[in-house]
Amino acid sequence: GEDVEQSLFLSVREGDSSVINCTYTDSSSTYLYWYKQEPGAGLQLLTYIFSNMDMKQDQRLTVLLNKKDKHLSLRIADTQTGDSAIYFCAERTAGNNRKLIWGLGTSLAVNP
Amino acid sequence: NAGVTQTPKFRILKIGQSMTLQCTQDMNHNYMYWYRQDPGMGLKLIYYSVGAGITDKGEVPNGYNVSRSTTEDFPLRLELAAPSQTSVYFCASSYSSTNYGYTFGSGTRLTVV
């Protein structure tokens, strides 16, 4: 079946790079997404990558996709305290009425 | 541009009471979704709609109902509230053809006591 897995917690020091990992099972994934949820707020789309791409960079964010291993990662360079949040990985598969399959989220703690 | 608006932001219900969580979007999105988020459990899809007049069940529809009479509005109805429905509820919307994912509302925190 369809499944998306993420580690639940990550702690980094301010200024370091953070790498949040995600694995998925459905090889028919078309798009993969990273969302950010700050405390008490809704989810905000950070970035997305099409399944025929290996990498996408957007300012401090780098998304890497290894389609063979069904592995997605989000690297945040120069992590700041404002990056502390929960990060959700989600995949959109072919068909499926545009429903996304969600990971449980990785809670990123940035320590000064 | 308001995006997706949810009301109320907070609500306390007594067991057995009913309420409607409101969701409206002004982006002319045809797809809309209701999720609940419980600590450590991620997002669970309750109901979704692919257009006005069309709704379908998600993973956890029991105890909820929806309607979609207009493109803009997608209310979620709780009948006979139970403590298990204590959660944070998120509404989201998307275009059918977009690859940009969903736009989320800011959520409704519901406590059933």
Please tell me about this protein's structure:
The complex is a heterodimer of chains A (about 110) and B (about 110). The model of chain A has no long low-confidence stretch (mean pLDDT about 90). In chain A, β7 and β8 form a beta hairpin. Chain A is an all-beta fold and about 110 residues long. In chain A, the strands form 2 sheets. In chain A, strands 2, 4, 5, 9, 10 and 11 form a 6-stranded mixed sheet that branches. A 5-stranded antiparallel sheet of chain A has the order 1-3-8-7-6, with no helix packed on it. Chain A is globular. Chain A starts with a strand and ends with a strand. Chain A contains no helices and 11 strands. Chain B is mostly beta strands and about 110 residues long. Chain B contains no helices and 11 strands. In chain B, strands 2, 4, 5, 6, 9, 10 and 11 form a 7-stranded mixed sheet that branches. In chain B, β9 and β10 (about 105) form a beta hairpin. Chain B is globular and about 40 Å long. Classes of the chains: A mainly beta (about 110), B mainly beta (about 110). The interface between A and B is medium-sized, with 23 and 25 residues.
Largest interface: A-B, 23 and 25 residues
Q: List the uncertain runs of chain B.
A: none
Helix content of chain A: under 10%
Count of helix runs of chain A: 0
Q: Mean of residue pLDDT of chain A? A: 91
First-to-last CA distance of chain B: 36 Å
Oligomer: heterodimer
Number of strands of chain B: 11
- Strand % of chain B is over 45%
What is the N-to-C succession of helices and strands of chain A?
A: EEEEEEEEEEE
Strand content of chain A: over 45%
- Point out poorly predicted stretches of chain A: none
Decide which structural class fits the backbone of chain B. mainly beta
Residue-averaged pLDDT of chain B: 93
Helix content of chain B: under 10%
Rounded Rg of chain A: 14 Å
Shape of chain B: globular
Q: How many helical stretches of chain B?
A: 0
